[in-house]
Amino acid sequence: MKLCKLARKSRIILALDFMSESLKRNFELLMDYMAGVKIGIPYILDHGIDGLKKLRRDDVYILADFKLADIPAMMHRVIERVSKYIDGVIVHAFIGSEAIKKLKERADDLGIDLFLVVAMTHKGAEEFINKNFNRFIKMANELASGVVAPATYPEYIREARRYLRDKIILSPGVGTQGAEFGVALMSGADFEIVGRSITLSPDPRKMVQYIREKHIIALKNYSPQTSL
Ligand code: BMP
Fold first, then answer.
1. CA nearest 52: which of 8, 74, 15, 82?
2. Which residue's alpha carbon is at the smallest distance from atom 18 of ligand 1?
3. In the predicted model, what is the mean pLDDT of residues 39-61?
4. How much is the average pLDDT of 13-38?
5. What percent of the chain is predicted at pLDDT more than 70?
6. In the prediction, which pLDDT does 221 show?
7. Is the CB of 211 under 6 A from ligand 1?
8. Cβ distance 183 to 174 under 8 Å?
């Protein structure tokens, strides 16, 4: 998978939900320090499909996070529309294995990797979605290239890594949402998804440098058996 190779470049996937003027000015330069970019509904609303096309680079993994949780026909329609411009797509595990199996078949045909959300970062996630974590990681083991698991609850990352030895773990929740940079890597994640700490920073270059230093320390102090 393209993303595995990019781990040597960086462990940051940039969530492009916001784009400050400062980020726009430094964007091309910052891409040299990103393994990937995660775009979602906010980015598409602001920049459209043309904006998505412009992000394409050989050395940046493009992850589409359209919060997919629908019937297969509609999810197929979405990924078919953007398949040329993306490398991977995130889907909610709670829609069930039947729908995910169908999505995976289509994604495989199109050459797109599938990531399942197995637990979420926000407080309310414990009310419903995170309660099904154990079932979701079993599903991911069969049907996905990797999972999205929360840095704000690193115990889920540790458990996901114990169970999913050869899958990629992506983790949001560091920075603005309160988890320390590096905590997800130290718990067994392969990449940290970082959004507002960079995209809304007055000095995004300095922030990226700071996160990279934290990542070097995290990877030096702890080397869980990851898929990379
Ligand atoms: P930020 O670093 O600005 O908090 O951004 C985190 C990104 O990860 C956002 O794009 C958000 O939609 C996504 N995300 C999350 O925060 N928690 C989850 O459980 C799942 C997500 O996809």
1. 82
2. 120
3. 97
4. 97
5. 97
6. 81
7. no
8. yes
Which atom of ligand 1 is closest in space to residue 121's alpha carbon? 19
Catalytic residue status for 67: yes
pLDDT score of 19 more than 90: yes
**Length of the chain, please?**
228
Tell me the β-bridge partners of 12. Answer: 192
Q: How far is the CA of 95 from the centre of ligand 1 (A)?
A: 19
Residue corresponding to tokens 């979420």: 120
Q: Which residue, by CA, sits nearest to atom 2 of ligand 1?
A: 195
Average pLDDT over residues 107-112: 98
Structure tokens at 71: 């019937």
What is the spatial distance between Cα 198 and Cα 44, in angstroms, rounded to a whole number?
A: 19
Pick the catalytic residue from 5, 24, 54, 67.
Answer: 67
State how far the Cα of 153 lies from the Cα of 183, in Å rounded to an integer. Answer: 10
156 membership: H or E segment, kind and range:
helix 154-163
User: C-alpha distances in angstroms, 19 versus 14, 37, 105, 151?
Assistant: 11, 12, 34, 23
Q: 10 Å Cβ neighbour count for 28?
A: 9
The secondary structure of residue 60, as a DSSP letter, is B
- What is the spatial distance between Cα 13 and Cα 102, in angstroms, rounded to a whole number? 27
CB 15 within 8 A of CB 172: yes
Atom of ligand 1 nearest to the CA of 125: 19
